[in-house]
Amino acid sequence: MHAHPTRRELLKAGGVGLLTFTLGGSVVKLSPAEAQAAGVPLAALTREEADTLAALGERLVPGSREAGVVAFVDYQLAASSGDCMLMLQYLGVDPPFTPFYREGLAALNVAARALYKLPFAELQDAPADALVDALAEGKIEGWTGPPPPLFYFVVRNDACDVTYGTEKGFAALGVPYAAHITPPSAWGEPS
Amino acid sequence: MTALPTEKIDAVIVGSGAAGSHFAARLAQAGKRVAILEAGPARENEDLVSSMLWARRLKGSGAPVLETGKDTVGYGFNAGRGVGGSSMHHYAVWPRMHENDFRVKSLYGRSRDWPIGYADLQAYYDRVQDECGIAGEHRMESTRPPGAPYPMPRVPVFEQGRIVGHGFEAMGMKVSPLPLAVTTRAFRGRPQCMWDGWCDAGCPIGALANAQTVHLPQAQAAGATLHPDTEVVRVLTDASGKRATGVEAITKDGQRVKVMADVVVLAAFTIQNPRLLLASATAQHPDGLANASGTLGRFITGHMAVPVFGLHEKETNPGFGASGGQLLNQEHYDDKNAHKAKGAFGSYQWMIAQAMKPNGLLGIASSRPDLRGKALSEFMERASRHMITMTGVVEDEALAENRVTLSARKDAAGVPLASVAHTSSKASNALWDVAAAEGVRVFEAAGAKEAWHANRAPMHIMGGTVMGESAANSVTNSYGQCHDVPNLFIGGAGLFPTSAAVNPTFTLHALSARSVEHLVANWSAAVG
Ligand SMILES: Cc1cc2nc3c(=O)[nH]c(=O)nc-3n(C[C@H](O)[C@H](O)[C@H](O)COP(=O)(O)OP(=O)(O)OC[C@H]3O[C@@H](n4cnc5c(N)ncnc54)[C@H](O)[C@@H]3O)c2cc1C
Ligand code: SF4
């Protein structure tokens, strides 16, 4: 999986927003949400990182787990830098970007475990929200990842991208998409 | 792919964006043999996918630029890479600079003067607007300096624009149609704009003036060759150090090649031009090429944008219109001391009622980065129908200490990375505060239920290779011709001695038109 095709090949191929995966030796097509549920192998993130990202994304932007925030970030992290669609590339952080996510997600779990003895993804609403508030304000003691408000901003944007920035997302808001060129897929994933 | 020239040609142009394509078109049309070397990939219309996600593939991904200082200039967002450069996904707001912008030092005793005045550029502005097409209404734009009427009818005003326009009027301020290099009717073979708000992703129908729609086709029709994926790493000079002989570049397959030419034009955008010159130091130019004055890299300016937002009870259809906006206000522009009592100096303008998509750095969700969870979902429901917005463009005083230097870190080709230090002056920051407070008041006067402004956002990068009268304190003369190396020309907003408070691209085109006309008329003198 994730043999990244060139942009032009993608455009020729067209697409319907499905990801192609190899599961148990056979090639299957899944939506990002199905892929997540099926435990499809990740290209850049570990399973724990993916679970943490999904939980944080969902808390910041409801609907982003289902919309595929993990599949999006994981796919972009594995893509070649010229094809990257992550907003992080504008924000003065040097590529490669995987360490940014890795360190941020790990720091969040360290904080969750220190405070509540559970990984972030397993927290109840109240403690999880309290930790997200502290993240946004940069007030997590002993934090070792990227600057917490930047990490918050970036993950929130990724979650907004998949939830609101696709044709489906526009439709859910009731906003006409009116494309000149319709995206061949939501975020460049092979169809 | 066209092979790179192996024999000496007349002119090699570094960068295929706004300035590079303009130089290329005029030189090729004057019968010169021209090659354009572009670091990034080829871009076709089919690459301009309407999506704020896909649009990010078009933007900067070259060697990183290191940024320091309190008010970083945001190279990553403000640069472009690939054929057409950032011109290809820019928003085409094209106001003229004002007379006082050229004489800041003589009028106000601070910052710098330009070596030319508005009168020297007027005819070139007129020529560029006729060629590229600008929509506007000069009789309504009372702050516009003298010039020919716009060649296309004004941009339409939609509900969002009407609402904000009323806010300005309620405060006794005037708005006029935004001068936009976008087609309000079929223009020179380009179709009329559809006002769908996708300009940020690049306009695949060609309604917006940029390198792809105007100058690159002219250049190629006149025989100029275009070489994508070819990154220039050094400007070459002869033994005397007084003449450029060509450039060294790296091709996609990693080969180091030389392209020799009588004239070299650097048009690689603001930060990259000084980086290349600094990295091209020789025994004759130990501090960087064309840097005898010590000003190379200095006087970097960046417009600090004022993003203002509001929610109105009426439906505003905020996703539609042009990414650049619908209306303009330049109320206090002509007196840079208008807010002196508040410690502020400079001019600012408002670009009003930009099209906003739900996501992205300039999208609806980013207007309230503090919102999350259910509050964000509710906000998005409302704001995607009721948002109003405008952006202030604030002058940034030119300071010598705001500069590009070379870092100890190098890119894959061994060229030192650019490091940019930028901290705005107190007076520029005070002006930003004045504008931000005014913006919120305008939105309240427009009847917004909620009105707020976001933080400073860097927009447009200028300076670093400033022009001037004297070789002692500037890099080039008023034609962008390097004082120390007369067959080396620079194109782009890096030439601006001061930032002004209007978007830079119309002015950089007017300068390019003037420079290239001078170069063609004085070819032998320049070549030496
Ligand atoms: C989102 C956005 C909106 C904007 N909106 C407006 C607006 O409304 N109005 C306005 O006036 N301006 C606007 N601008 C600014 C406008 O895009 C620039 O002023 C203009 O494109 C600069 O022209 P240029 O030729 O100097 O650089 P560019 O057009 O960026 O072209 C520079 C080219 O040089 C290439 N290059 C760099 N280094 C090398 C190298 N070493 N070798 C070879 N090639 C190299 C780059 O890849 C690039 O293609 C906007 C910019 C952005 C990012
Ligand atoms: S709004 Fe007009 S200029 Fe912008 S992308 Fe659409 S058609 Fe092109």
Gyration radius from CA atoms of chain A, angstroms: 17 Å
Distance between the termini of chain B: 33 Å
Q: Helix coverage percent of residues of chain A?
A: 40-55%
The share of residues in extended strands of chain B comes to 15-25%
Kindly give the count of domains of chain A. 1
Class by alpha and beta content of chain A: mainly alpha
Order of helices and strands of chain A: HEEHHHHHHHH
N-to-C SSE series of chain B?
EHEEHHHHEHEEEEHEEEHEEEHEEEHH
| Radius of gyration over C-alpha positions of chain B, nearest whole angstrom | 22 Å
Largest interface: A-B, 49 and 49 residues
Q: What is the CA-CA span between the terminal residues of chain A?
A: 11 Å
| Mean pLDDT reading of chain B | 97
Q: Count of helical segments of chain B?
A: 11
Mean pLDDT of chain A: 84
Number of strands of chain B: 17
Regions with little confidence, pLDDT below 50 for 5+ residues of chain B:
none
Oligomer: heterodimer
Strand content of chain A: 5-15%
What ligand species are in this complex? flavin-adenine dinucleotide, iron/sulfur cluster
Q: Quick one: biggest sheet of chain B? A: 7 strands, mixed
Characterize the structure shown.
The complex is a heterodimer of chains A (191) and B (528). Chain A has 191 residues and is mainly alpha-helical. Chain A has one domain (7-173). In chain A, 51% of the residues lie in helices and 5% in strands. Chain A is built from nine helices and two strands. Chain A has helices at residues 7-13, 32-37, 47-60, 64-67, 69-78, 98-116, 125-137, 148-164, 167-173, and strands spanning 19-23, 26-30. A two-stranded antiparallel sheet of chain A has the order 1-2. The longest helix of chain A is centred in the middle third of the chain and has 19 residues, at 98-116. Chain B is of the alpha/beta class and 528 residues long. Chain B has helices at 18-29, 75-78, 104-108, 118-132, 159-170, 215-221, 272-279, 373-386, 426-445, 505-521, 523-527; strands spanning 9-14, 34-37, 66-68, 176-177, 225-227, 231-237, 244-250, 256-266, 301-311, 327-329, 348-352, 387-394, 403-410, 416-421, 450-453, 457-462, 488-490. In chain B, the strands form three sheets. In chain B, strands 1, 2, 5, 6, 7, 8 and 17 form a seven-stranded mixed sheet that branches. In chain B, strands 4, 9, 10, 11, 12, 15 and 16 form a seven-stranded antiparallel sheet that branches. In chain B, helix 1 runs parallel beside helix 10. The two termini of chain B are 33 Å apart. Chains A and B meet through helix 1, helix 7, helix 8 and helix 9 of A and helix 8 of B. The complex binds flavin-adenine dinucleotide and iron/sulfur cluster. Residues 14-20, 37-40, 78-82, 85-87, 89-94, 200, 231-232, 267-269, 272, 276, 324, 460, 492-493, 503-506, 508 of chain B line the site of flavin-adenine dinucleotide.
